[in-house]
Amino acid sequence: MASPAWKGFISFGLVSIPIRLYPAARSSRIALHQLHKKSKTRLRQPLFCPTCNRIVDRSEVVKGYEFEKGQYTILTAEDIKQITPASARTMEILAFVNESEIDPLYFESSYFVVPEAEGRKAYQLLLKTMQDTKRVGIAKVTMHQREHTVFLRPYRSGIALHTMYFANEIRQAPGFGETENVKIAPQEIKLAEQLVENLSEHFDLSKYHDEFEERLQALLEAKQKGREITPVQAPARAPVIDMMAALKKSLEKSGAARKGSAAARPASAHARREPRRAAS
Fold this sequence. Notes:
alpha+beta; Ku70, Chain: A, Domain 2; two-stranded antiparallel ribbon; 6 helices; extended
């Protein structure tokens, strides 16, 4: 069973809800380790002190901030404890904002908020109120010795929490958003909209998977069995010179793929639609 990442309370006004946080998503990757090329031995990074010329125990490790080259300010666990804010145990909602005002770019890590047994009614009250008003709560919480500003929002039948990227953490990219001196013809817009329509479908998360991870797994299995693996061939792409010609060719290709997909649907799906046509 998954372990909670944080336990404490959500408070808004005088309402207090005991809850637990569970990671909502986590990367799953094949771990590749560093080996010594000659001996095939895994390389490690021991806690070695060059001054004492020995490996030190973890109990001898402290945290330090380098304010000048080779000069450190030492911070003990007690020092950290003294500055730990109230949000280490209580996640107080500071404000509610319209969900439409929050760009997904601001979301960092995601968690599921799970109420303790005694907090279920207050939890449902908060969830229902946010759903009905289309609001998202903004709160503060301290996890892993860092205070985060977080979003609380309705997700399916519960509340999801997302840690927030601050304004100074949103990067700037040279040339991003520049549209000057770019002219788009009405015919190009129309063809592009038709192409988008041909490629549109309902979102299904199960359709998307990490293909590189699958190929890496296949490569490892082939290596273990002494087999060769066929390399992935990158599709050849010609430079786009005529935008209209490229859009028309894309429309033809996507339209054919869509017809093929429709023809491949199970007969039962067509049978389910027949009564509706007959009844109209």
